[in-house]
Please model this.
Amino acid sequence: MKILDRYIGWAIISTTLTVLVVLVGIFTFFAFIDQLEDVGHGVYTVWKAAGYVVLNTPGLTYQLFPMAALIGALLGFGTLMRNGEITVIRAAGVPKARVVGAVLKSGLIMLGIVFLVGELLAPPAERVARDLRNNALNEHVSFQSEHGFWSRDGRSYVNIRQILPGDQLREIYIYEFDDLNRLKSSTYAESARYVGQDWILQNISRTEMDDEGLRARHLDEAPWDSRLKPELLAMVTIEPKSLDVLSLVRYTRFLSRNGEDSERYQHALWTKLTYPLATVVMVLLAVPMVLRANRSVTVGQRVLVGALIGLGFHLLNQAAGHLGVVYEVPPFLSAAGPGLLMLLVAGALLAKTP
Model:
């Protein structure tokens, strides 16, 4: 039976990887075309646009894997069915459950691959891509490090350790220099919120420096006139979907401890945990679709059906996430709902398949 598992598994995995390469290539091409609109702004060149697109490839691969798994399984398993090999296997006494088990094993292997891509490759690559693009398009942005976001703001350098939803900042350091590039003042604010057209710093410790020495003072709050508007910070804020599972767990706990809304991050966490399972569900869904179809179904028809179902699942998954946040649906249900729905459909079709 190990031979059967390897044979069916290789037929499905090889076609899935081929389909994945094609899909990633198509989507990457259109992503590159889209980036060309910004070439020439700031120091954003064609090569930087290409680098940005390449760095986003692991994340794109992660998103397209379920669709590729469905199309690949339809093609690979469908080829075995069209050639009569599945019929021979069933005639030899192999039960339907055993064939489904062989298909599921290939799905589990691909689940491991997509999880590694989504956890190890995509998050750091997307952070580097975002920094590359933002630094090239906006001269005020310096860089983003493990110590937070750094930016040049006129003659000041700003370090923001936490950028929170709702136009809120935590742990802000402002270093102001004079015309001779000498440090003029150092300011630390525990938090900041955006009100009207200005930031309001809170719980401030400020040290001023001049020829007469140092002067320190404390303020409860004060306005901060800065070029760093919320729309600019939104460009460099790490999206929840770009974080790995451990980072999402830590950040969700941090927000909860500080009384902040963590629903978006909880949804992203559950999506990270459940999305790879969609690959297995899609492979499983392909089995009854192939077994119930006749041998006259062409390759083009299988690709079209797989693409439509895969695209529908992707759109449903995106919509469920947004609607879940808007209507306060429990994060697990909104994240896992589309996958569970497809699993029920696959189970129902399998039960009716002889």
Remarks:
- Residues 285 and 346 are 5 Å apart (CA to CA).
